[in-house]
Every structure is written in C-alpha cells, then in structure tokens.
Amino acid sequence: MSKYNADTVTLIQVMYVINNSLLKLRLKNINKVDLDKNIINVTKTKRNFSENFIPLSTNEIFYGKPMSFDRDNCTSNFIINDIDFFDLIKKEYELNKDLSDIYDKTIFYHYVIKDKQYVIVVRDIDVNKSRKDVYNMHGFKILNNVIDEKISNDSFIRQIDNSKLFFDKGIVKKKIFPVKLPILKSKPSKYKGMANTNIGSFDIETYKDYDGKSKVYALGFTTLDKLKDNIVKIFYLGIDAFTPNELIIKCIDDMLSSKNRDHIYYTHNLGGFDIVFVLHALRTVNSEKGFNYYIIDTKLRDSKVLKCVVRVKTSSGYSKITFIDSYNLLTDNLDNLSKSFGSKVTKGILPYTFIRADTLNYVGNTPAIEHYKLKNKIISLSCYKELYKKDWCLKTETIKYLKRDLLSLLEIMDHFNRYMFIEYNLQITECLTISRLALNIFFKRYLGQNLLPVIKNVSVFSFIKQAYYGGVVEVYRPYGVNLFYYDVNSLYPFASKNPMAGHICEYIESNEPIELSELFGFYFCKIKTQDNYLGLLPVHKNGLIMPNGTWFGYYFSEELKFAKEKGGYEIEVYKGYTFNKVYNVFDKYVDDLYEKKANSIGSSKLINKFILNSLLGRFGLSILKLNTEMLSTDQYAEILATKPVNSAIAISDKDWLVSYNRETSKKITSEHGLDYIKILNQKSYVDIENNHSFDDVAISISAAVTAYARIYMSKIKLEILEKGGEIYYSDTDSIVTNTELSSNLVGKELGKFKVEYLIKKAYFISSKTYCLVLKDEFVTDENKGVIIKSKGVFDNSLKLNDFLKMYLNHEDVKALKSDTINYSEGYVNIGTKEVTLKYDAYTFRTRIFNQKGRRINTKPIQIRLYSSISKSNKDNFNLETIPKTRLKKIKTIIDSVKDTELFKKTFIHKSCNNSGYSYETLEFFGDSILSYYVSKFLFKEYKNYDEGDMSILRSLIVGTQNLAKLSLEIGLNNYLVVNEKLPKETRDKIINNDKTLCDIFEAIIATIYLEKGEDILVKFLILTVFNNSITKDKIEKFYAEFLNSRVTPSSPSTPDLEKNELFQDSRDIVIPLSEKSMNQITFKFEKTKPNENQIASLLDKKNQSILKELVELSTKYDNIISHLNLQNKNDININIINLKSYIENELKLLDFNKKNLFKEIEKINYNIEKLNNLNSELENRLNRIEYILYILIVIPFILLILF
C-alpha cells in the first residue's frame, strides 16, 4: 500500500476490453459468387455457406449465447423441446471414436437469426482449427462436420462436405469443390465359342464419264462360305441392268435374299466412296415407291458413314444386311494390306481413264500405257508388256479385277477376325474401329484395379478439352545439308507410361496465382515467356503454334512445370481441375503389345502395331460431337427451326445428311416463332451424363499423353541446341537435325530414336511439305533417292525442281489433289484437280531472311493477343481464334485481290518514301466504309440510344485493338512493307503496333470494295467484323459495364475511348449478323464503281498535302535516326513511334468530327466551306507538330556535336 501512499482499500474498479479482432464477415453477396451447376449443387452450397446456419466468422462471439455446461462431465440442464442436447452429443461421441479426443473441448451456442433458432456445437481441434455441427431445435442435424481454419485475423478457410471457401476480409478469394466422377469399368463379356463367320465383302467399280462424274458400271459381293471356292457374284452395266441405280438395286436385292442375308459386308473406304452410290440408289427407289421400302439405318462420324444397315420387310419378318467400312479397322490401302497379310489374291490394275460409257463393251488391243496408273503415276514399260494382249476385253478385265478385290479383302478380314478371336477372344464384327477393338482389349486384360475417371461431365470435359493439343509440326530452317532424320519408336505409347489423372478430382479457383509445384491436373493460367528460340507451350491459332509472348491458356500441369523449369516461363495459375496421380496404368498393355510387334512379322506385326497405337486417342472421343443423321426434308426443317445446324448435304430430292447440335436453342426457336418451353417438353433431350455411349471417355488421359509426348520431344530439341546443333524440321514424333543424337537415345527400345534417313540436302517449305535428297545407303528402287511429302496433294505430282522454285525463286508451284463427293447426284469424282502450293505458306513461326532476301531461319511468333485482359474479366471474353473453316473463306477473298496493283499499295507503310504511296488513303476510305456499316447496324438495332451512346457502341466494335487482332489472325501483318533501311527494332515496333495493324485492316476493306464490289465486301465483313461468336446480349452487357464506370469528360472534346480499360479489352466483341441480315443494310453505291483516282480526288487536296508533308517529315526523321550511332537510339525510336501515333490520332480525331463525310463522298458534293475550316484547324495543329519534330531533330545533332 505504501507504493500508492494509502492506508486502506475502499474500492477496486476493474476495466477490461474484449478484443474482437476477428470480426464477423458479412458476405452479403454469397449468392453472386460464380458457381458451376455442372460441378456442384449450387443451391445447397450457397445455402450452407451463407449465414443462415452459422456466421461467416471463426470468432465465437458472433455464434450467440453460450450455454451452461460442466467441463468435467459435460452434463447440465441444456434441454430444449424436451431434447437433451448434451446427451445427444455424448451419444455421438460414444459412436464416433474420432471425436473422443475433443470431448472435453465442446461448447454449445444458441444461435438466433431471422427468428430462427439453432444450436451450434463447437469442438476445438487445435489452436487454429475447429469443428462445428449445427442442429435445429428438434435435435436434427442441419450441418455436419463444418471445419474452420484460422489463417489470420482477417481470413479463414471454411470446409463443408469437402467444399472449401477461402475468405479474406469478406471476399471469397479461393474456391475448392470436390468433383464426383464415375470410374472406368470393364464391361463383362461372355466367352465366344467361335469367330463370327457371317461376313462378306462388297465393292463397286466406277468410270469417269465425259461430264466429269464417276458412275457405277460394275459391282459385286461374296461371302466367307464361298471364299474357299473363289466364288463371287458380279453385276455389269448393260448386261444385268441398263442404269447404274438399277444395277446397284439388283445387287442389293440379291444380297438381301435368304441365302446371303444377315451378313456383315466389309467395304474398304465405304464412307468415302461406295456408300454414296448405294444411298442414292436406295433413296431414289424409296422416293419412287412413296414409302420406305428399304429401311436404312446409318451410323456416322464427322459426316462419314461407318456403318449402314439395310432392311426390307418379308413375309417371315425382316431381311437385313450390314455394310461396315473396313478401312476404320485396318487403316491402310488394300494393296499394302494384301502384302502384309500374305493374301493369295493380289490386287490388279485397270485403265481407269480409258473407261467411258462408250467403251464398256470394248474388245481389242490393250489400252495405251498412259491409262494405267498406280498412285497417280504411269506404270513401268515392263509391267505394261505383261498386261498387253490383242484380245483385251474391258468386261472380262473388270470382272477379274473386281473378283480379286472382293476375294483379297475378304481373305484379309477373315484372317484378322480369326487372329483377334484366338488372341483376345474378341469379335471384330462387334467393333467399327480399330480404336474400339484396342479399348476392348485394354478393358478385358489390362484395366485391372486402376481407378480412372470417366469424363462426361460437360464442364469438366469442356475445360480439359481446351488443354488437349495434338502433335506439333514446325519448320525451323528451310534448307540444310548432311542431316539426320530421326523417328521415335511408338512415342504416344511411350508417353502413356507416365502418371495419369485418377478419379479423385477437385475444382480449384483463386483470385490470386496458385502455386504450381504442388498441382497435378489441368489449369487455366497466364503465360509469359522469355525470348526463346524454342516455344515450349502450344497455342491454337489457325493451327498449332509454339509462340513467345504473353497470353492466357489451358494446359496440363506437367507441361507447365517443364516450361517453367527449362524455358524460364512465368506462369500464374488461376483455376483448374486437380486429380490424384495413378501410376503404371498402361505399362503392361504397352510393353506386351510392343514386344508382340517387335517379335512378329507380316500381318501379326501390322495388327499389333495398329492396336498399340490406336488406344490412347480413343479416350479423347468428344462427348460434344455433333449428331449426324439421315433426315427427310420435313425432319430437316424441324431441326433447322429448333437446333444449331453445322452442315447439311442433300442425298436426294427428299433426304439430307445433317450434322447438328443436340441441344434445343432458345434463340433459334424464338426466331422461328416457336415456344421454347413447349419444344423442350415435347422433345426428349439427350442428357450426356446419362448417355452410356460415353462411359469410356476419359479425355484427361488423351490430353496428358499428348502433353507428355511434347515434353519428351522438347527435351530432345533442347539437348540438341545445348550441344551446339541445329534443328531443321520436327513432326509429332520426328526430328531433322545436323547433329547425331547421343547413343543412349538411339535404339530399338520403346521411346528410343531410330535413323529414318541420312540426308544429303533437304528443303522444308511448310508443315508436312518437304523434299529430302537421300544419301546413297538410303536410296532404294522405290524412292530413287528422293523423298517428297506434301499433305493434301499427290506426292508424285511434285518434283525436286518444284521445291527449288519455291525455296530459291520464291515461286508458287502447281500440284494435284483428288476431287470431291456429291451425295445428292449419287457420284464421286475420283479425278484430280490442280491446286497451288504457296512458297510462303508456312506461318507458324516468324521467318528470318538474309541480306539477299532468302529465308534462312525462323523464330517463334510473338503473341500479343489477350495480353490486356485483366484477371477480373478474363473469362468474359471469347478467347477463341477464328475457326479454320471461316479463316479459309477469308483468305479466299484476300487471295482474289492479291494480284492487283491496289493490293500492293494496301500494305505500303509511309516510311517507304521512295514508293510515293502509302496505305493511308485507302485506310481513310476503308474506315468510312466500315463506320457506315456499323452505324447502320446500330441505328437499326439500338434505336433507343442517343447519338453519343451509338458512337461509343461503334467504338466498341471497331476499336483499334479489335481490328488489330483481326489483322493478326487473318495474317495481314505478313504483307506489310516497311522501309528496310530503318533499324530492325523500329521496323518491329511499326509492324507490331496496334494502330498500324488497325489501319491495314481498314485499307484492305477499301481494296476489296474497289476491286470486287459491294457483295464480296459484305461477305468479308460478315466473316471478320460481323460474326456470331458473341451475341448482341453480350455487347449490351459490356456496354452496361462501361456506362457504370464511365467518367464524363470535363471538356467538350471527343473522349479518347481507346484508353478506357473496357475498350482495351473489347477487341473480341463482334456483332451477330447473318449474311441475309447484312444484305438488308448494305450501302448503295453508284452502279459505276469509282476507281482509286476518283476516290483520291474526292478527298480534300489541302488535307492530302498536309498528310504528304507529315509523311515526308517523319521519313526524314527516320532516316536521320537510322544513321545516328547513339546509345539512346532505341528511346528516340520509341518517341518517333509515339509521335507518329499522336499525329495519326489527331488527324483521325478531326475526321471523326466530319459527321456526313461518307455521305458527301457518295454524292461527290463536299461542303467546301466546312472543309476549309477543318483544314485551317489542321494547319494550326501541323504548325505545332512541326515545331515538336524540329526540336526532336535538332537535339540529336546537338548531342552528336557535343559528344
């Protein structure tokens, strides 16, 4: 007491403060958290994670009133509604031993919210973790095993039913949800006592008549019971029938007769040839009879017929035959198969170009040698001499040839059938493809206890599909000498021996980057590369490229880790699907089949090779594939009115082969005035997840295998470069290099490399288009020392000289390819047509040229697409590039003007002062044209918007980055001509500048109009600016977001829209217009199309003069800079680029204010007074700009003199 100078204590007053540092999180927008209904029960999850049952906090002060209790034995008077909650919990402890260790750490809270009462039972697990259970007042458990883990005073993790949300200051920062996936199961199969013997073969022979169409003149079939005696049934035009359709029907009726029915008839290339004639004939008869006399059931894939069942009703029931395409089971030509299977009957040869309607009964000397071709090449003279005779008969030779084909194919299929039955007790007649056979073998013998997921959840499948890339084909150097061509032994089977994704799956999503090292699965992420020679991650961009730059993409985790480790990639993962690892899934399957292949010959070797290589891709079968059916015209019309149709091919007057999306479209039904809900109720929608056709789809396997394969090939490439070697070409499983691989990489073992060729010299023009001149030890009678490959055309239509022309002379060359099918008229044109091979067709890497302008090397394409999309809205944009089919149509239009003088001027940059021309005049005109079409559309569709809002919407659609992106995607940047005297850095900045790319897009619009007219221009705009990838509703959504964030400018001048973040991200916005609706708003020009000079004369001369002066001035500056040898040269170059951009923006701003400019161009009636005022303003601006330029020019000279 002495310390306080007091004798007694009369009062003690205690003051305390409750530290509620862990505040309650009021997450009022839990219902706005984006959750996928295909992954979780959204309603249940949002209900459980709301505050309705338990507060969003780990601070128990918010849990309500704590109930009285005895910590020693947990007994008290806690009874509500005659329910003793202490006794209830005590019994749960006794039943659950896992809770016994936290028995004495239990606290009860009486929680009241919105007039509802609950009991929250809290059990502390450790200092930062606790378990909660929630009961209602009747003793029923509402929430079970809620686990809270405190991270900091502001953040914690809550887990309910294995779903986790990471809360930080009231915001959901991270989400983890379990994804329940079914497991791959082998289907039980009964032992089969013998192989199916009800098989046969069927074939058709055609001739190409004078009208260029192929027509049937002979066909036949045979069955296995007749094979021993070499008996076939042949039908010949003019003998058995007088028209091709009658001939086909006669043969089909014979096959449906009692002695031949119920057979499976194999036809090689059924879907691409024979079935066209058969379907046409059958449908024609049905049409003539007025009912379906022949009942046809087809199974199709990608518009190709895999199987066709034909039935007719008889007095005893139905008679049936089945056609199956044998090519899908044995994917090689019949001649090679005959040799591999050691067929007793070999394939013959016919003079197809000799056969016509008027030669069907020809008898005489053997037709001339030029009519006999193998693989589009005339046969040798020695072979022809063996064929020659004076009493040669076309009918006899055709029957002999057809008989050989029928017997040979049936012998092969019988051999194959017996082999599969003996080795695996499988019937080939139960499978339509070799991949299905391989899958059945895997399920039957090798799946075992491996738990692999079935991926038929639409969300999971769609996500992983975007991470499923194929093999990469790249040209690095176009020419080389003394090279090694290496192939990998069974690359994909080798890659499959890595860990696979198991059936335990979680979806994870975070606002902040997720640590990559602990992840295994498929993820969406941001990629940023170094300036590497080899790209290590693929991107879909009109094909598969391996670029440098920055982009967002979907990838397999192991490929991301490889790119980060070996390439220095910066990777930020934001969401994806995490799986458990499963090991040794395919090891035994791969090892067994590889050993069988290695230790067998002939047909056994070929069969085991097919089975080994066909399994892994089968798991990637798309569950989103279009449905392809044979429909009547009425059925087709019904589909058109309710579902998106991808393609439709007329089989006859009343029948269609239609590929369409199964899901009923609300948009399409409403456009046709139909009741969407009523249609849904009437039509049964196929639920993919309940469709057992997809019970063996595991795209996670296929995506992982292809990724592992790319990793392996990239490792080898990096090793070659590290040793100082060079790479010239690579395919999915091959590499061409000037360096011999290490001995440990070469051998016969799985995954090792073998030398396919030693090369004297090679020309690599494009992907899968090359010419190899071989060293002597690899020359054979067949290859003659030269290997030529060119995808899509006949290899023998090209010569070594063609590759010299393409490489040395930069010349396009001609080649031959096969022609098309026509279902509706029942013919297949098996002839050839000439196509052009472009010398500069390769665009998957950026070409590097020497001083003579010859391509000598390449480097990865620099990706800038999507780089300005922020993390918060990256998913709101369509990140897909232009589809290949649409891109092909766009390039066709561009090619149609490619040879014109105006096209060349379209891409001349103003830095090329010697040309006396640049693209700016055309850009000015094209900008007006584009502005008109977009304005007209907005006027029609957005009548409620005022002029200012319409201007903003127009800028959304034709913003600089949007048009720049289109320029890149359709390859306009490849045509740009920039002054070669400028430093490389400056040229690159010009070429990659958004403004430049935007300008040349507008310039090409003008060129297409001037050269091809309005109709072609409209098609071009539909394919590029106006397409259906984003709906009108989405445009309105983006516009609404913009309006919410827009700041009204303080000055009356036009705001710089392209600096607004929304417009930076709006480059993917396009308008959904069909060609029909586009035609309704086309601009009506005069009948006489104005030429270039007329357009130029329409523009103000003073404006032209100013532009010319600016070009000359900036060009002089460029030339000065290019000769200055200063350390800060790059900074100066950057300044000039910015200055040019400023000049151009200033000029364009003035043009924007000319509201009626385009209308005045059309009428050729300018308001001179208004233009004079504008030009006066331009002159004032020019004076200021000239002053700035003068300062920038003088300063470097002063610095040069001083230093």
The whole-number mean of residue pLDDT values reads 78
Strand percentage lies at 15-25%
CATH class categorisation of the largest domain? Mainly Alpha
CATH topology of the largest domain: Ribonuclease iii, N-terminal Endonuclease Domain, Chain A
Q: Helix amount, in percent?
A: 25-40%
Radius of gyration (Å): 37 Å
Amino-to-carboxy terminus distance: 84 Å
CATH superfamily membership of the largest domain: Ribonuclease III domain
What is the count of β-strands?
44
Strand order of the largest sheet: 1-4-5-6-7-8-9-10-24-29-25-28-44
Low-confidence stretches: 821-828, 865-880, 1028-1034, 1036-1102, 1116-1140, 1152-1166
Q: At CATH's second level, what is the architecture of the largest domain?
A: Orthogonal Bundle
- Derived from helix and strand composition plus strand pairing, the structural class reads alpha+beta
How many separate helices? 35
Give the biggest sheet.
Answer: 13 strands, mixed
Number of domains: 5
Shape: globular
EC number: 2.7.7.7
Family: Belongs to the DNA polymerase type-B family.
Catalytic activity: DNA(n) + a 2'-deoxyribonucleoside 5'-triphosphate = DNA(n+1) + diphosphate
Protein name: DNA polymerase
Identify the notable features of this structure and list them briefly.
single chain, 1203 residues, alpha+beta, Nucleotidyltransferase, domain 5, 5 domains, 13-stranded mixed beta sheet, seven-stranded mixed beta sheet, 44 strands
